[in-house]
Amino acid sequence: MHTKTSTANSGVASRRPRIGVVLGGGGETGIAWQTGVLAALGERAGITPATVGVVVGTSAGAFSGLYFSAGLDLGQLVENERKGEVATAPLPAGGGMSAIPDEIIAALGSTEGTIEERGRRVGALALQTSLPISSAEFVTYVATMLPGPEWPAADFRPTSVNAETGQTVLWRREDGVPLAAAVASSAAVPGFLPAVEINGGHFTDAPRNSFSAGLVAELQLDAIVYVGMPTPNLSNTVEEEALDRLEASGLQVVRITGGDGSEELIHEALDPKLRPRAVELGLRDGTAAAAAVAAFRAA
Predict the structure, then answer these.
(1) Bridge-partner residues for 169, per DSSP?
(2) Under 8 Å CB-to-CB from 128, ≥6 apart: which residues?
(3) Model's pTM, two decimal places?
(4) Average pLDDT of the chain?
(5) Among the residues of the chain, which ranges form H helices?
(6) What CA–CA distance (Å, rounded) separates 145 from 295?
(7) Which of 27, 77, 173, 270 might form a disulfide with 151, Cβ 3.0–4.6 angstroms?
């Protein structure tokens, strides 16, 4: 189980630590795995929407982060995952990663240029790719996967990338963007799902700039729980590098990045048939990390 913990003293003793939850990508299997992790952390470490300061979700994490932020019964969601009673991507099953054009796969995995330049390259390819579903149809479908049209009261921020500029966006309730559009834009895997039109621009699941340092400064966070398996070709981020720097400066960090069995979930991230296994591994990994999370909650 890959869980890394820092218990550096943040110098704040007069109040409970302000905690941020950052959820990475991972496709179909990532949603199920993160749901299991969050369910275990809720049960064993007391992590709930009321105990955290912000929830940021990227791609798969936009779904699991919303379910958590909205206060849904994660135990019931776990049972739904076990039974296969979940909504999946609005495309025929079985396409998986092989359905994404090789040119886009190469661009997603590239480290050439700045994050914005890489985002623009991926965005341009996404906009050029013909898909059997439109932006509006995708958003309408995503709306059926959500608990409702309203943003949660908790501070929930799904991330996306402007396909034209390559800039990373963290959507907020205050932006006035429909929740389904914001979540869809975060999960719009280029070449697999369409870029989402929002306010005249197009947004897709491309490489993001790191945002943890900005959140820590804005919200005076003392700790971050990072939940995300390494998925180099989905929602390519540099967030863990940013967390390394924050940790060195005194931020408390718990990373939950998957243990034994994660390789298949990463390799076949877009295969919904693996979701029942993924949620079980998430429960295991969340349970393994719960003591570390509970420790800095009590600090």
Answers:
(1) 160
(2) none
(3) 0.91
(4) 90
(5) 27-45, 60-69, 74-83, 102-109, 115-128, 135-145, 179-186, 212-219, 239-248, 262-267, 275-297
(6) 34
(7) 173
